[in-house]
UniProtKB/TrEMBL annotation:
Ranges of residues in domain Inosine/uridine-preferring nucleoside hydrolase: 4-348
Organism listed in the record: Talaromyces atroroseus
Protein name, UniProt field: Inosine/uridine-preferring nucleoside hydrolase domain-containing protein
Similarity field: Belongs to the IUNH family.
C-alpha cells in the first residue's frame, strides 16, 4: 500500500477524506495531524478522533498541530460546519484513544514520512496549510524525499471550468467560498499557502484540488441515499455509521443551501486523497489500469500559483479585498497541477467501497 500522512480540520468533507485514507486497500495511513480551520484546534482534534472511532481505525495516531496561522488570527467556519466543526449528528462516538501530546506534531510527520522509501509517500492537506508549511520549512529535505503533495485549496475561476460557486442572485461571478475571491483553506493562512505553492522543489509534486473541480462533485440526494444504502424515508433502518455520514451530508447540504443556494453540497476534501489513486500518480495507474480514477489535467498542464497575501482577515467579504485569492498562470516551468475535471461516478464508487470496508470493522 502507498504510505500517506493526512493533515486535516474535520469538517464534514474531511470526515470522508479520513474514510478513504483509512480504508482504501491501496493506502497506508501513517498518521493524522489536525489544524485550526473549520473549528478550533481542540474541536478538529476531537472530531478526527471521533471519526476514527466511528470507522474502526483507532490504531491511527492523531497529533494536534497548529492553533493559528503564521501571522494572523484564526478564522473558523461555523456557518458551514457548525460550532463543533462537525455538527448535525448525534451518532458521532467519543474517541476512546486520546490524541498524542508527547511528540511535536511536525516531528511526528517528518519521522513517519522520512522512514518510507524515497519517492513513495504522500502528504495530503485538507485543512488550512499551517502545519504542512511548517513541515517543509523545518525539514526542507523532505520535499525531495516525498512522492507527492495533494492539497484541497484554491479557486482559479476565469473560464477554468464553468461550474457555479454560488447559486444566489448577484453572485454569478463569485470564484471563492469564504470570500468572493478566496477559497477557505488558502484564505485562513495565505502566507503558509504561498510558502508551499512557491517552493520550486515541491511544485512539480503538488496537485491543487480547487473549488473549480470540487464544485462538480456534489453530494446529491441520490448520493446521500447511496451512503445510507436505503431511501431517506427508511433512514432509521440503516447502520449507525451510514446514518452518521448521511446526517453529516444532510447538515452540510443545509448550510450550503443557506450560504450559497446549493442544497447539494460539494464534497471537497476526499478528492485530495483520491489523487493518489488516479492517473496523476502514474505508478498507481499502471498497476490498476481498470479501476484508476481519471482526473482531467489537460495532459499535464502546470501552473505557477501566486497567493494574494495583502489585507486583513475581515468579518465580511467587503473588507477583505482579494486576500487568499490564488492566481494561477500556465507555465512551462516547474508548476503545480490543477485538474479541472474528474470521473465523478468512479469517485463515488471509491468512496462507497471504502464505506463498505469501514462497516466491516
Ligand atoms: C475547504 O474548506 C473547508 O470548509 C472544507 O473542509 C474544505 O477543506 C473548502 O473550501
Ligand atoms: Ca477541510
Amino acid at each position: 500500500p502507498i504510505p500517506l500522512w493526512l493533515d486535516c480540520d474535520p469538517g464534514h468533507d474531511d470526515a470522508f477524506a479520513i474514510l478513504i485514507a483509512a480504508h482504501h486497500p491501496s493506502l497506508n495511513l501513517l498518521g493524522i495531524t489536525t489544524v485550526h480551520g473549520n473549528a478550533s484546534l481542540g474541536n478538529t482534534t476531537a472530531n478526527a478522533g471521533s471519526v476514527l472511532e466511528a470507522i474502526g481505525r483507532t490504531d491511527i495516531p492523531v497529533y494536534p498541530g497548529s492553533k493559528k496561522p503564521f501571522s494572523r488570527p484564526a478564522v473558523h467556519a461555523p456557518d458551514i460546519h457548525g460550532n463543533s466543526g462537525l455538527d448535525g449528528t448525534d451518532l458521532l462516538p467519543k474517541a476512546s484513544c486520546p490524541p498524542v501530546l508527547d511528540t511535536n506534531p511536525i516531528v511526528a510527520m517528518y519521522n513517519a514520512l522520512i522512514a518510507q522509501p524515497a519517492n513513495t509517500a504522500w502528504v495530503i492537506a485538507t485543512g488550512t496549510l499551517t502545519n504542512v508549511a511548517l513541515l517543509f520549512a523545518t525539514f526542507p529535505e523532505l520535499a525531495d524525499h516525498i512522492k507527492g503533495l495533494s492539497i484541497m485549496g484554491g479557486a482559479v475561476g476565469e473560464g477554468f471550468t464553468d461550474v457555479p460557486m454560488s447559486r444566489l442572485p448577484g453572485e454569478e461571478t463569485r470564484i471563492g467560498n469564504v470570500t468572493p475571491w478566496a477559497e477557505f483553506n488558502i484564505y485562513c493562512d495565505p502566507e503558509a499557502s504561498q510558502s508551499l505553492l512557491s517552493n520550486p522543489v515541491l511544485a512539480p509534486k503538488t496537485t491543487l484540488i480547487g473549488l473549480d473541480l470540487t464544485h462538480q462533485v456534489l453530494a446529491t440526494i441520490a448520493v446521500q441515499e447511496r451512503v445510507l444504502k436505503t431511501s431517506r424515508s427508511e433512514a432509521s433502518t440503516a447502520g449507525d455509521l451510514r446514518r452518521m455520514l448521511f446526517d453529516l451530508l444532510v447538515f452540510f447540504g443545509g448550510t450550503y443551501d443557506t450560504q450559497f443556494g446549493m442544497a447539494d453540497p460539494p464534497l471537497h476534501d476526499p478528492l485530495a486523497v483520491a489523487v493518489i489513486l488516479s492517473n496523476l500518480n502514474p505508478e498507481y495507474e499502471k498497476a490498476h489500469p481498470d479501476t484508476v480514477l481519471k482526473f482531467d489535467d489537460k495532459n499535464g498542464e502546470r501552473f505557477a500559483v501566486e497567493v494574494v497575501t495583502d489585507g486583513q482577515h475581515g468579518s465580511t467579504p467587503a473588507v477583505t479585498g482579494q486576500l487568499g485569492r490564488t492566481i494561477a498562470k500556465p507555465t512551462e516551468g516547474p508548476g503545480v497541477s490543477i485538474p479541472r475535471g474528474v470521473d465523478i461516478e468512479v469517485f463515488w464508487g471509491l468512496v462507497l467501497s471504502c464505506l463498505e470496508r469501514a462497516e466491516q470493522c
